[in-house]
């Protein structure tokens, strides 16, 4: 296998089209076809099923797409790391995060990073669990910051702790339930919860109710966008769930934490990456900036 062959295959796999991959790579379609055929012959396996509608990956192709993406991204990082060790902190870093962390730890971390590595390029993507973890596995993202629940990560991933924090219920200032002190008082409330698999607060709410011996909320309105949650909680009597640092930021939008005697949960914020991932100097610098921001948030807690 050659890197050029893998690059062609990854573009075909992502575009699901030989023609589109040829356009993106500025190659002819016959050249793309020939490269794929050479790769299939080398591996002794059919990678693509071709049809008039485009191409679909075989089971072998699906495995190779992840591995090939990792190899290509790691090769790029290797070139950048050598260059970074020879001089300035240049190169690219792709970082995944959730809305909660984007509104709390990220601003300070990015400002500090821009000061320490002004010539590095930082790309930030919003991570939706669990689908966003694919970007870590295939190498498209260097690492990601998220809330970590017990047994959430598979064996191929590892995490670095950033900050331990409470998750709390949030409501608009005029919500009649804003004065509730126990979860039982919120049993009849309408809760906003993430779409299944898109984030963690939904399972946090359900688990909090079960731990309190209560039936979890039913008929929840589910969302995939933080903006949807913000708009509905700030304009209706629906309740949401947020980390305490995020809840403090949401006060500017008229949302307040419901002052329950016990938080919904205690959750770890952490950085997640592949176990095999080796951070470049630029990535190491940004990780240090995230850790500094996390310590600053922790120092502000009462």
TrEMBL record:
This protein's name: LysR family transcriptional regulator
Family, per entry: Belongs to the LysR transcriptional regulatory family.
UniProt-listed Gene3D superfamilies: Periplasmic binding protein-like II, Winged helix-like DNA-binding domain superfamily/Winged helix DNA-binding domain
Domain HTH lysR-type: 1-58
Species the sequence originates in: Pseudaquabacterium terrae
Xref: PANTHER family: HTH-TYPE TRANSCRIPTIONAL REGULATOR YBHD, LYSR FAMILY TRANSCRIPTIONAL REGULATOR
Database matches in InterPro entries: HTH-type_LysR_regulators, LysR_HTH_N, LysR_subst-bd, WH-like_DNA-bd_sf, WH_DNA-bd_sf
PROSITE patterns: HTH_LYSR (PS50931)
Pfam family, one: HTH_1
Keywords in alphabetical order: DNA-binding, Transcription, Transcription regulation
